[in-house]
Write a structure and sequence with these properties.
The chain has helices at residues 2-9, 11-36, 59-68, 74-84, 88-93, 97-107, 110-121, 124-128, 133-143, 151-160, 171-176, 181-191, 194-197, 199-206, 208-212, 217-227, 230-241, 244-248, 253-263, 266-277, 283-288, 292-300, 306-314, 318-321, 324-333, 342-352, 360-367, 387-399, 405-421, 429-435. The protein has 436 residues and is mostly helical. α6 packs parallel to α9, α22 runs parallel beside α25 (324-333) and α29 runs antiparallel to α30 (429-435). It starts with a helix and ends with a helix.
């Protein structure tokens, strides 16, 4: 009765007492839940009743746990895994706790790691679409052996079978076109063999033209060129050659062409250079364009193409020289951008001849490319190129209405420069021009 009267006359005090009672009841309920299921027990001293779900909002608690995670502290690592496992996916999606899950993946034993990665891969779509979760999925790929685990084959299988509400959100192409999905695919390309990627690589090779021109998909093709085999690079390069003029001057696809020129074997580089010089867009126009200029800069790094590129740059018009992109290319080529008469341009060629170049025959022979014939003075033009180059050049010639005279000029210029400084031991650059 006294309590009732006290509550009646002191409502503020009664409300405070009720609040304390409610908080105590919640604490007791949480403690009872922890006693029933010990996976909820926090291994940190003094935090036994803390729920793992609190890590998603409590960055300080996350840092405390991360600081204690260590490969040498196996018992503690296992306790943390038991604590966070029921909330692993939720924690992987949160900003602070995703770092804890990544650290945990790197310190767990093989068996415990596989248990956690197996649970995470089941929610792979949520993870790769998340700004935070994609880093956890990348870490799963990095720490999982590609040879003796079923986790990565399972992930690849799920990517191939991805479903979505629209065609754009289905299958592996949708993952490659995603802002974070492309990162996950990059890690797969780095840590898996081409054989294990199988159908995934085939889908991307068949979609090279589309992915090259996508702001995120282009990174997947670049990674295939950087980490793939020469056979895979050949397949991609053949797709690039079908539309090399457009791709070389495209905002994102030009990066793919650059990567192809950097990482392809010599005979594929020659094939790509052949396609670029055979386009309707002149080399000068490409050098003056914002994105194509970077492709021309890559050509300057190729021993068999640099001399011909320099010869072309000397012939630039005043309009070309006004382009900042062209000026950047000319600077790399070592050319002064001064107004030049045709006579002055011709007088500058002996200076360009100082850049000694090996013969095309030497380059192809050194590359080990299969030749359709032997290298000697009597070899016909049709048999003086690698088999793969002959096929690609023929394909490019039939699929584009272009003039191949420009390519002949390019190789002839290279011949002039080489002959001025050193003898060409076998096939000459001029004959290489005719062959192309």
């Amino acid at each position: 009765a006294r309590a009732g009267s006290w509550s009646k006359w002191s409502p503020e005090v009664a409300e405070e007492a009720d609040g304390r009672g409610e908080a105590q009841a919640k604490a007791e309920a949480k403690a009872e839940e922890c006693r029933r299921d010990d996976v909820c027990l926090c291994p940190l001293p003094g935090h036994a009743q803390r729920s793992a779900g609190e890590l998603a909002e409590d960055s300080k608690l996350c840092l405390e746990v991360i600081a204690l995670l260590d490969p040498k502290n196996g018992s503690f690592n296992e306790q943390v895994l038991k604590w966070v496992f029921p909330s692993a996916t939720r924690l992987a999606l949160a900003e602070g706790s995703c770092r804890l899950i990544q650290k945990l993946l790197s310190v767990l034993s093989a068996a415990s790691r596989d248990r956690l990665t197996g649970a995470l891969v089941q929610h792979w779509v949520e993870l790769y679409e998340s700004r935070n979760g994609n880093h956890v999925l990348q870490k799963v790929i990095e720490v999982t052996p590609s040879t003796d685990s079923e986790i990565l084959p399972l992930l690849i299988e799920k990517i191939l079978a991805k479903k979505g509400p629209t065609k754009e959100t289905e299958g592996p192409i949708a993952v490659a076109r995603h802002q974070y999905g492309c990162r996950v695919l990059e890690r797969l390309i780095e840590h898996c063999t081409e054989g294990s990627l199988g159908a995934l690589v085939e889908r991307y090779v068949a979609s090279v033209d589309e992915l090259c021109r996508h702001q995120y998909g282009n990174f997947v093709i670049q990674h295939l060129l950087e980490h793939g085999s020469d056979e895979l690079r050949l397949q991609i390069n053949r797709q690039l050659l079908k539309n090399i003029e457009v791709l070389s001057t495209h905002r994102t696809a030009s990066h793919v062409v650059q990567m192809a020129l950097q990482h392809s074997p010599v005979h594929d580089q020659i094939s790509l250079a052949t396609g670029i010089f055979g386009t309707e867009l002149t080399l000068l126009d490409m050098a003056a364009s914002r994105y194509g200029s970077y492709v021309v800069q890559e050509l300057l790094d190729l021993p068999f193409a640099a001399q011909g590129v320099r010869r072309r740059l000397v012939e630039a018009s005043e309009q070309h020289k006004q382009s900042p992109a062209f000026q950047r290319v000319a600077e790399k080529a070592g050319l002064a951008l001064l107004p030049m008469t045709p006579g002055a341009a011709a007088a500058s060629l002996p200076l360009l001849a100082q850049h000694q170049q090996p013969s095309l025959a030497e380059l192809i022979d050194a590359s080990g490319a299969p030749l359709a014939g032997s290298w000697d003075s009597s070899t016909t033009m049709s048999t003086m190129v690698p088999v793969s180059l002959a096929e690609d050049a023929a394909s490019a010639r039939t699929t584009s209405n272009t003039s191949w005279g420009s390519l002949a000029t390019f190789a002839t210029a290279a011949a002039e420069g080489a002959s001025a400084s050193a003898p060409v031991p076998t096939a000459s650059w001029a004959s290489a021009a005719q062959a192309c």
